[in-house]
Structure formats: structure tokens, C-alpha cells
Amino acid sequence: YNLGDNQRFEIGYETYQDEGDYSYRPDMGLATDLAITNSLGIPLLWPTELTRDTLTLNYDLTINNTVVKAAVYKNTSELKRDESGWADNAAFAGNAGFITGEANNTGASLIANTVIDSSIGHELTYGFDYVKHDTDYQGEFTDSTATAGEESSTLALFVEDKINVSEEFSVIPGLRYESYEIDSAVVDDEFNAFNLALALEYAPSNDLLFRLSATELFKGPEISEVFIGAGLYDTPNTDIKEETGVNLELSFAYQTEIDKNQSIALGATLFKTEVNDYIYDYATAPDEVGGGSWKDNVGDMSIDGFEAYVEYSYQAFTTLFTVSSAESELSAFTDYADLQNARLDRQQGDTVTLSVNYTFSDANIVTSWEIQRVQDVASGVDLDGATLDNSKDGFVVHNMSARWTPEAIKGLSLVFGIDNVFDEFYASQSSRTGVSFHPLFGELYLQDFEPGRNIKATVQYKF
Fold it and tell me: Does the pLDDT value for residue 121 go beyond 90?
């Protein structure tokens, strides 16, 4: 609702429900689920219900040289899972019961942008961000009841100034104060930090931009998800520290029109991220706290990589070529020497993507064909990966789509697409992959394979 020429108010509500029979370990593939169910003599599938309701309020205001954007939101997610199937095996009958859980995420933010005209131009961005997370978990079992709950909150205040030293050169300093409180099974503490950022931008022409930036990082230990007990099974670690670090980026972007029918755009970004006191959720706990695993700072993580793209357009034809690569490596603390040089388990292989689009302007049809190639990742030490074989196979996936907006019916659009056109059999490197060994279940083949060829259509109408 527009309150006037300079004010706008928006309210949104979304509800989602997913109900069905799901495996107990949905992050792993069917082979693992079968190994677990056959070994323990319990069901493969468990009746599960997930719901999510989100309410958002947005407000925009423009006054002279200032633009203000404010938002408030509340998100509530609920879990219900029938675990009576544990009673199928008398040895686990005590685990039979019904699980309920709830996660509430509440937040508010305000971001203002003010342009100051002077001999040296300033563009100020400032505001605050507040987020609160609350979780509750309850298990009604045959012989007992288990409850757990955690909460955390973050308040951040920030200001940034883009100083236009000249028409070509800008300096962008920034300051952010963050206060983070957490009350969890692992730690009950407060973490605070002032973080600095600095960027330099140089634009020798309207077509070319160079940027160099450095940003300090801060992140406290997180609460656990409701799906895994909301901290019920976590081990206390009062000495755990927050993660800090710095992110460095060097980039350029160039675009120009070759003639009235042709244009080209290209760019690249090099980045290096250093995370000090990296928190690993499954670090090996010392014997004095009971062994097993716990959340702890295991070392300093380094992530290096680049992204690059080239886009060429000729009349109705557009093609985009992108390349990305990133590698991670842990410099482990003495207590976790076995993790030295470990990479992140979700590390991707080098990725190359080619997208080709053609517009049939007379028919109002836009067609697209995308080819993505992801390279192999060799085996090596990693965090939370497979224990016997953690190498990752590469794959090539083709996707195609066509969008039609008929002139005869204003507001109507029809989209037809085929994902994985050639029915590639592959597992995403962002999911669980590899082969692990479990002392009870034996070898576990973790791959959760992606869907095969998927044909879909969408009809959309805007009033």
C-alpha cells in the first residue's frame, strides 16, 4: 500500500506444509538408510510433518536525499515425527515415542542511505539488524520424556561511507558493532566485537570498474537444529570461542557496446577468506569430558578461490560463460593435529557453466540452454566427510527452458523446462558423498543421488 509518493507499506504471509514418510537420515542416500534399518531391525520410513509460517512487514520511506528501508519478520517452523517404529526391535523399545519441536526466528532491521552533496561527495549507509532464535524440543518416549531448548540473539549496528575523492576514485570505510548472546547446551555466554571494512573503487571510465576490499569477520557459536534435538545431545564446552577473521577480494568488471547489435561484458573476482578459531561441530572431545564428539575451535581455516565470467550478446542471442574455483585448508591446533590440512566436506570441484539464450521477439518466447560441468575432487583429509573414500565424482548436467508471454493475454506467462535433459546419474558435491565405515552398520554408501530427467511446466498470471 502506497501511503504517498514517498512511502510504501508491505505485508506478506507465507505458509508451507510438508507431510509424508521420510527416512530417519534424510541427509544420506537410500543405501545408508537400508543398511541402518536392516541392521537395527527398525522401519525405513518414519511419519513426519513439517510446517512453516512466515509473517513479514516492510516499510520504505524517501525524504530528500535519504532512503529508509525497515523490516520486521517472524518465522515459526514446527516438526512432528512419529518414532513408535523403534518398538519393532525390543532392544530399542525405550526409544519409541513421538517427537515435537518448534523453532522461532524473529528479526527487525533498518537500513538508511543518505547522499551528502559537497566538494567531496559522501554516500552514507547505516542502520541496525536484530535477530533472535528460539528452539524447543520434546520427546515423549515409552518410559521417559526428554526436553531441550536453546536461544540466541544478535544485535548489530553499522555505518559505511562511500567517499567520492574524484570522479574516478572512491574510498569506502565501514564499521560494524555486533553483540551476540547465546544460551545453549554447549555454552551460555555473550560475544562482542567491532569489525572494520575498507574498500577502494577505481572507475577510469563508465565501462570499467576495479575494486579492492577487506572485511573483518565475526561469528559466535550457533545453537543446534530442532531436527537433531535442539542441543539435547550436545556436550558443554564453556571455553569455546567465537570465529573471527578477514575476507579479501580483488575484482574488476567491464562492459561495452561493440555496435548497436553487439555488446560484451566480462569480470573476475579473486578472494581469500581467513577464519580464525574455526568451529567444527564434530570435533573429537577429550577423555576428561566423556569422549565422543563436541563443538570446538579446531584451527584456522583458509578459503581461496576465484570467479570469472564473459557475456556476449548479438541481437536476439546471448551467451554467458562462467568459471569458479575454491579450495579450503585447515591449519589445525595441536589438540586436533589429525585434522591438519583438512578441507571443508562440502568443497566443490572446479565449476564451468555455459548458458545460451535466444529470444524470438515476434512470438515473445525466450529460450535457454545451460550446461554445467563440475570437476572431480580427489580424496584427502576433510571435516565431517566419508571415512573410507571421500573423493567426489564430477558430472555434467544440461538444463533447458522456454518462457512464453502471449500478447493476447496481458499478465500471462507460460514456462516449460527440462532439468537434467540427458538423465545424468550424479550426486551433488554439496550433499553427503563417499563411503564410510560404522562399527555397527559396516560400510555405508552415503551418496544421495539427485533427480534424473525432470520435466516441468509453470503457469503464472499477474493482475
Answer: no
